[in-house]
């Protein structure tokens, strides 16, 4: 039993970046049904799966930090239960719901910004280019778009009407998630546009940071690849 448990933890550690990639893709393609209750369940499952995969990146020796982040996951789960109750009982106070949304996206922003920092540190510390480093770079880019969606969600909650072209209801987050990645990749279809000054400012910042990420990460990968080739030739 101990060996099986040990093997399971070794599997989680060895494939931690692959698992994070799968969780990011799941979070990206999750379908939002029109009814709020089903949508809550699917979004909660995708979000918590992504958070657990992210916690798996943290060293096992840092039990305190892992425990704190697990509490974050529990808090997110409780929040989605609250939203589900709102579907059953429409009399739930709107202001309380708004406050909960602000807390939710603030926590998610802080959580995934920290995870992004861990990923970028892994890239910087890598001595040579490997498939793992490439996967980490991919995860970092996806996280960038995800973090952007949390920022835009906060803006829309604090100042409703900051974006045009958004659907009503809970599926609004799916539109904001889409907008974040379209902005990050500088495609900009124009179906969703920022209206408020804050929305425009952060849209520009996301474009700038997205281009900065691509430039810097590619430069780091090229330098490490060249350095690795020179070492192999010398040896």
UniProtKB/TrEMBL annotation:
Transmembrane segments: 12-31, 37-58, 65-82, 102-121, 133-156, 204-223
SUPFAM superfamilies: Voltage-gated potassium channels
Record's keyword terms, sorted: Membrane, Transmembrane, Transmembrane helix
Keyword Transmembrane helix among record annotations: yes
Matches recorded under Pfam families: Ion_trans_2
Gene3D superfamilies: 1.10.287.70
Residues of the Potassium channel domain: 140-225
Protein name, entry field: Cobalt/nickel transport system permease protein
Organism from which the protein derives: Aureibacter tunicatorum
């Amino acid at each position: 039993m101990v060996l099986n448990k040990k093997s399971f933890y070794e599997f989680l550690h060895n494939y931690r970046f692959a698992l994070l990639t799968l969780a990011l893709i799941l979070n990206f393609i999750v379908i939002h049904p029109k009814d709020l209750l089903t949508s809550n369940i699917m979004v909660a499952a995708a979000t918590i799966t992504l958070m657990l995969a992210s916690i798996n990146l943290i060293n096992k020796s840092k039990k305190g930090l892992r425990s704190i982040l697990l509490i974050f996951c529990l808090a997110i789960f409780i929040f989605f239960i609250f939203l589900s109750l709102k579907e059953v009982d429409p009399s739930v106070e709107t202001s309380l719901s708004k406050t909960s949304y602000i807390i939710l996206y603030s926590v998610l922003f802080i959580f995934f910004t920290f995870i992004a920092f861990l990923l970028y540190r892994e890239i910087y510390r890598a001595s040579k280019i490997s498939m793992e480093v490439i996967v980490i770079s991919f995860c970092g880019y996806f996280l960038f778009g995800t973090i952007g969606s949390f920022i835009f969600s906060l803006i829309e909650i604090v100042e409703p009407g900051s974006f045009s072209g958004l659907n009503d209801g809970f599926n609004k987050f799916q539109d904001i998630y889409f907008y974040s990645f379209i902005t990050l990749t500088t495609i900009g279809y124009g179906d969703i546009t920022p209206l408020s000054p804050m929305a425009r400012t952060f849209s520009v910042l996301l474009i700038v940071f997205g281009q900065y990420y691509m430039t810097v990460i590619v430069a780091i990968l090229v330098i490490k690849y060249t350095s690795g080739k020179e070492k192999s030739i010398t040896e």
